[in-house]
């Protein structure tokens, strides 16, 4: 029986990042990026992708893996996805700064619709958001992808079939 070669965490991360980037571009250009439910779907895609790739990794290793091996594979994949996605977000916002401004305008409208803030408070809030935009974008992405990646890796490692080799059995070989 031919041994399957496991997909490396780098390749898995590249594939997942490509899917997330295509999804994000689609949302943006369809004007749906302001929809919170569709934005949260990004995290669901990441979790499902991690579960699939962790399962494939376990199967390619004939399930001779431990929970720790699988979790580490998933979290390394998350690290690759996160780095690539942050790079994409930075480049995307540099190439299309008008989209960022549309986001600030949408935030202004949302704050005005709530009616709880004065115009001065809204201006101060938006000024602060502009000032810390890059820190929020990069830090927020890093933070949420790390948490969601850990959750996806835990789920993937938990549900993937495991039959670790007993070290005593290896000694008798």
Short description:
Helices cover 80% and strands 0% of the residues.
Q: Main attributes?
A:
173 residues; mainly alpha
What does this 3D model show about the protein?
- It is a single chain.
- The protein is mostly helical and 173 residues long.
- Helices cover 80% and strands 0% of the residues.
- The chain contains seven helices and no strands.
- Helix 1 (9-29) packs parallel to helix 3 and helix 2 crosses helix 3.
- It starts with 8 loop residues before the first helix and ends with a helix.
Protein topology:
Elements: H1 9-29, H2 36-60, H3 67-95, H4 97-114, H5 119-131, H6 133-159, H7 167-171
Helix pairs in contact: 1-2, 1-3, 2-3, 2-6, 3-4, 3-6, 4-5
Oligomer: single chain
Q: Using DSSP, what is the number of strands?
A: 0
| Sheet with most strands | none
Count of helix runs: 7
């Amino acid at each position: 029986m031919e041994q399957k070669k496991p997909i490396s965490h780098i390749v898995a991360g590249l594939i997942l990042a490509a899917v997330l980037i295509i999804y994000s571009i689609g949302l943006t250009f369809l004007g749906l990026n302001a929809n919170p439910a569709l934005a949260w779907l990004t995290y669901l895609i990441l979790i499902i992708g991690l579960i699939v790739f962790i399962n494939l990794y376990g199967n390619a290793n004939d399930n001779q893996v431990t929970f720790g091996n699988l979790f580490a594979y998933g979290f390394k994949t998350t690290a690759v996805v996160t780095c690539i996605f942050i790079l994409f977000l930075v480049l995307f916002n540099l190439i299309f700064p008008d989209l960022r401004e549309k986001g600030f305008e949408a935030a202004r409208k949302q704050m005005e619709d709530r009616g709880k803030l004065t115009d001065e408070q809204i201006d101060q809030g938006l000024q602060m958001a502009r000032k810390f935009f890059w820190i929020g974008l990069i830090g927020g992405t890093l933070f949420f992808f790390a948490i969601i990646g850990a959750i996806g890796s835990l789920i993937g490692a938990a549900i993937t079939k495991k039959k670790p080799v007993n070290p005593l059995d290896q000694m008798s070989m």
